[in-house]
Amino acid sequence: MGKLTRSERQWVLYDVGNSAFVMLVTTILPIYFKNMATAAGVPLSRSTAYWSFAAATATLLVAVSGPVLGAVADIRGFRKPVFALLLAIGVGGCAALALPLGWLAFLGVFVLAKVGFSASLICYDAMLVDVTEDDRMDSVSSLGFAFGYIGSCIPFVAGLALILTADRTGLGAVRATVLAILLIAAWWLLCSLPLLRGYRQRHYTERQPAIARSTFRHLGATLREIRGQPEILWFLIAFFFYIDGVHTIIELATSYGKDVGVADNQLLLALLLTQVVAFPCALLFARLSRRFEASRLISASIVAYIGITLFALQLDRASEFWVLAVCVAIFQGGIQALSRSYFARIIPKEKCGEYFGFYDIFGKGASFMGTSLVGLFTHLFGSSRAGVAVLPLLFTVGYFLLRRAVRMAPSAAQEPACK
Predict the structure, then answer these.
(1) What is the C-alpha separation between 242 and 199, in angstroms, rounded?
(2) How confident is the model over 9-48, as pLDDT tens digits?
(3) pLDDT tens, 362-393?
(4) pTM (2 d.p.)
(5) CA distance 265 to 321
(6) Is residue 286 a contact partner of residue 138, using CB atoms and an 8 Å limit?
(7) N or C, where is the chain less crowded by C-beta within 10 Å?
(8) Taking each helix axis from N to C terminus, what angle separates 173-198 and 137-164, rounded to the nearest 10 degrees?
(9) Are the beta carbons of 286 and 4 closer than 8 angstroms?
(10) In 3-state terms, what secondary structure has residue 75?
(11) Range of 79's domain?
(12) Quick one: DSSP state of residue 210?
């Protein structure tokens, strides 16, 4: 592949920053919230349901607004300002989680922060076509996830050290968690500054006098284009199902582990191991993408996730949670990175923001469905296992729909980056 260009490095660095927020959301925040809710008299299974519904609300808001944001960001000169605004909402919301809030207000601020984070990724994903070329997309996308995993460990380990030593240092668990949250917000902002300074939009649509009206007109035209391009339509439907399971596992792994009796420290350390293992595995997928079709690597990852979710159904010991964390780490970066780069290659580049807005609808819409289903079945049956039982079915449907999409795709989209 060769050395990363300056633009590619700046793009990858944003993944290093925002991945720290993902770590916060999947590790420290659920534990912090569940302890807060438990202190207020909320049962464990019900607090898991509330956390699921909050995550689902955030993803639904982004899914609904995604295409509009993407269409506006496609206009010449607009992508960077839109990205900066969404980044400010995400980082500001993250920092606000450190305020002394009740459990319900905490959920509200969490929704705001997650909306800013998730919506910023619409612009960020669309930037991929501006910072690199088609034959480097799989590798650059994978490197973004790889360095995001390992880079996010830096503020996370610092925050985890504050929490685990809180009693000895006299900080106390609450104050230590607050400092960890502020540290991650600062890290996210600092890692974003190079991209904000250096990014240049190469692919765009021209600005129309009536932006609002032209934006919705473009959206209607894009919808018709997608319906007329079965390789894109079927990929998005397949993506909806299989990424549902991936996002749901990311969102709820900590809550599920706590529900089945894994101690807080074990949860945090196991998920830290996930980040460490995910780094070389994402690099491995970047290398494999030069020799094998991205679609085949995605398919293999889906099959692996089916096995992972079946294994999770019988999980009842900390050692099994550690095994589960490692298995997820092996495939998590690859399936997300290659889905992003595969989609980027089959869409019109001048409308990449708009198309990635729809990509986000199917991705975040799936996450809304997955977290909602887990929350609903957990609430109805009083057991997290009832919710997790839905996930293998979703991965299975996603696998067969993906194979159909691949059969319709142009041959260039299916070829490995380097023959």
Answers:
(1) 31
(2) 999 999 999 999 988 887 788 888 888 888 888 877 678 7
(3) 776 656 677 777 778 777 877 777 878 888 88
(4) 0.77
(5) 12
(6) yes
(7) C
(8) 150
(9) no
(10) strand
(11) 6-414
(12) S
CA angle 102, 250, 185 (to 5 degrees): 55
- Using CA atoms of 118, 97, 376, 374 in order, give the dihedral in degrees to the nearest 10: 60
Q: Is residue 1 part of a domain?
A: no
Q: How far is 276 from 290, CA to CA, in rounded Å? A: 23
Structure tokens at 391: 């996930």
In sequence order, the 6+-apart residues with CB closer than 8 A to the CB of 4 are 12, 140, 143
CB atoms within 10 A of CB 76: 12
| 236: amino acid identity, one letter | L
Q: What are the tokens at 224? A: 């018709």
* Distance, CA of 357 to CA of 354 (rounded, Å): 5
Token couple for 115:
């909306």
Q: Contact at 8 Å (CB) between 371 and 384? A: no
56: in domain? yes
Residue reference for tokens 């196991």: 270
CA distance 220 to 99: 42
Residue with tokens 């319906």: 227
CATH number at residue 99: 1.20.1250.20
Q: Which residue has the tokens 């905490």?
A: 106
The Cα 223–Cα 229 span in angstroms is 10
